């Protein structure tokens, strides 16, 4: 048994079948002998009944915590890049992929918002035309008397979901513009 084997044996819980081999190695190795003594002392301390904590220990510890300066939370990317740990907040935000995506989207909406809105409107009109044509065509096996069967058809549900997404976007933009006008009048 080597020193590394003895450490692994201790980490694994000291299997009884290798006990004799471990003790034989500890007799000839001062480092492993000290390690075994330390483990025995630790086990004795853990097995002994614990004494009560001194009075007002919690208050003293919390008072020291209150006066100790607290370190701010770190951004994990910055820990990998130590040169950016002292960077200003706007640099740290720019390193966050979600913030970068939101900034790019907001920039595109501000820069070419009207063009994007016109593109979405044209796409919605084309989609509505296609849906009108697709819904007027006979479905593969609809029940002629049941409207619910037509609406439950997977093609119809997919077309409705695809068609409603741009409409919701356009409605949210219209509501935003309306609310911005209302707020500016109040001020």
> What portion of the residues fall into strands of 2 or more residues?
under 5%
Low-confidence stretches: none
Q: How is the biggest beta sheet arranged?
A: none
- Oligomeric nature of the chains: single chain
Kindly name the structural category.
mainly alpha
Question: Any key phrases for this structure?
Answer:
74% helix, 187 residues
Provide structural commentary.
- The protein has 187 residues and is mainly alpha-helical.
- It folds into 2 domains: 3-47, no CATH class; 97-186.
- It is built from 9 helices and no strands.
- It has helices at residues 3-11, 19-28, 30-47, 57-67, 76-80, 89-95, 97-136, 147-152, 154-186.
- Helix 2 (19-28) packs across helix 3 (30-47) and helix 7 packs across helix 9.
- The longest helix has 40 residues, at 97-136.
- The radius of gyration is 35 Å and the shape is elongated.
- The protein starts with a helix and ends with a helix.
Brief overview, please?
This protein is mainly α and 187 residues long. It is built from 9 helices and no strands.
Topology:
Blueprint: H1 3-11, H2 19-28, H3 30-47, H4 57-67, H5 76-80, H6 89-95, H7 97-136, H8 147-152, H9 154-186
Helix pairs in contact: 2-3, 7-9
């Amino acid at each position: 048994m080597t020193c590394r084997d003895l450490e692994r044996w201790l980490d694994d819980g000291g299997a009884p079948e290798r006990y004799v081999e471990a003790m034989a190695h500890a007799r000839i190795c001062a480092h492993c002998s000290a390690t075994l003594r330390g483990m025995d002392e630790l086990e004795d301390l853990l097995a002994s009944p614990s004494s009560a904590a001194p009075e007002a220990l919690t208050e003293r510890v919390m008072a020291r915590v209150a006066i100790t300066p607290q370190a701010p939370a770190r951004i994990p990317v910055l820990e990998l890049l130590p040169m950016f740990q002292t960077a200003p907040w706007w640099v740290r935000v720019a390193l966050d992929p979600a913030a970068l995506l939101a900034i790019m989207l907001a920039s595109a909406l501000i820069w070419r918002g009207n063009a994007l809105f016109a593109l979405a409107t044209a796409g919605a009109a084309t989609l509505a035309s296609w849906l009108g044509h697709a819904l007027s065509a006979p479905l593969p096996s609809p029940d002629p008397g049941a409207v619910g069967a037509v609406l439950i058809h997977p093609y119809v549900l997919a077309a409705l979901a695809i068609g409603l997404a741009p409409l919701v976007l356009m409605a949210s933009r219209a509501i935003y513009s309306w609310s911005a006008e209302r707020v500016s009048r109040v001020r």
